[in-house]
Amino acid sequence: MTETEAPGADALQEYFDATIARDQRVEPRDWMPEGYRKTLIRQIAQHAHSEIIGMQPEGDWITRAPSLRRKSILFAKVQDEAGHGLYLYSAAETLGADRDDLTERLITGRQKYSSIFNYPTPTFADVGVIGWFVDGAAICNQVPLCRSSYGPYARAMVRVCKEESFHQRQGYELLMTMMSGTEGQRAMVQDAVDRWWWPSLMMFGPPDDNSPNSERSMAWKIKRHSNDELRQRFVDMTVPQAEHLGVTLPDPELRWNEERGRYDFGTPDYAELMRVISGDGPCNAERVTRRRTAHEDGAWVREAAAAHAAKHTARHTGPDRTEAAA
Amino acid sequence: MSETPTPATGSPRGSWPLYEIFVRGKRGLNHVHVGSLRAADDRMALLNARDLYTRRNEGVSIWAVRSTDIAASAPDEKDPFFAPSGDKVYRHPTFYDIPEDVPHI
Ligand SMILES: [Fe+2]
Ligand SMILES: [Fe+2]
């Protein structure tokens, strides 16, 4: 839609390249290569879908949270994730993506979302571990995206990152509370850690030598760091937190490497990651079905609101306008 | 986040219109564009904007404007549209040499 012939394709490409090289942001109506646009739409859509599907594993615990305090916190956290999804869908729309089409692609399984949300949450400790690991990993991923070359995406990430810190901290605090409880509660935390550790490392995607699109995304400055670098940062950040909490991370190869000044760790089961991404994880079908049902059940609400709006606009030509003086 | 009306893909399946949202962070500040959202009408746009963009006291006032109602300049910053301001250095205070010893100027 922006592929214009008028000012000369070379000049446009040159201008775009220079913008990227100067570390400036590309804005919605700038000319951009189709590959850049498509890559961004795909990445932002998957990111948005992940936020939306990501409400489900924790959402299951809202009605069962053990206290009003935990219930209010969890409610706020899950509501934030909905907000993250909406910021991101808006960003995708600035690239010409259509909102209805994105939803359609999610509920028909044509677009992916993060593999992590296809794992079940059988205990309340899972809520804590998700906040600690999954939101922690999300922070590692998203902080560099605040400098992503596409303006609306970067700005959405700034907003998201401000909120993620609460997510991670409430999870860790929940786990600290459980760890100071009974033997049974401590075991429950350790069990959740054992189940979530490897899937959390997989969140960063395939290893660099098997991540075909990474290099181009980095050249375009959509992505700032490689998958393996971000995974390493997550491990380095999390190990001391685990020690403080008093849980064991389930990796016999995990140890401090004096020379590198970083932790060495084992290799995640990338075959499992591929299986889960391709739809064969423990909860894939359940998550997508639930999203589809919610969308279909909500159809009458959307229609009623549209009908009401149409009637209202017909009656008064100008609904209450604020006096918009700057 | 949409900055400008989105290219023709508006609402092919009768979906809700796109609104741009502006929030005044606190008294004394301008409203600033914070992003966009979809809503059936103005009232819903304001309610959704409150829930989406001011969950943590980020605002004391919200404007919701239909994206299609925004008139925007051409996207390219090299556009001659902005040329008139390019060569008028005398509009800046630093253009004028004033001796060091003249106070308060
Ligand atoms: Fe999020
Ligand atoms: Fe989060």
UniProtKB/TrEMBL annotation, chain A:
Gene Ontology MF annotations: phenylacetyl-CoA 1,2-epoxidase activity
The protein's enzyme class: oxidoreductase
Key word Oxidoreductase present: yes
Origin superkingdom: Bacteria
Region of interest called Disordered, as start-end residue ranges on this chain: 305-326
Biased composition (Basic and acidic residues): 317-326
Gene Ontology biological process terms, A to Z: phenylacetate catabolic process
Known EC number: 1.14.13.149
GO cellular component: cytosol
Keywords in alphabetical order: Oxidoreductase
Gene3D superfamilies: 1.20.1260.10
Protein name according to UniProt: 1,2-phenylacetyl-CoA epoxidase subunit A
Lineage of producing organism: Bacteria, Bacillati, Actinomycetota, Actinomycetes, Kitasatosporales
Automatic annotation (TrEMBL), chain B:
Enzyme Commission code(s) on record: 1.14.13.149
Record keywords, A-Z: Oxidoreductase
Molecular function terms, GO-annotated: phenylacetyl-CoA 1,2-epoxidase activity
Gene3D superfamilies documented for this protein: Phenylacetic acid degradation B (3.10.20.520)
Family annotation (InterPro entries): PaaB, PaaB_sf
A Pfam family annotated for this UniProt entry: PaaB
Protein name listed in UniProt: 1,2-phenylacetyl-CoA epoxidase subunit B
Organism of derivation: Streptomyces albidoflavus
Gene that this polypeptide is encoded by: paaB_1
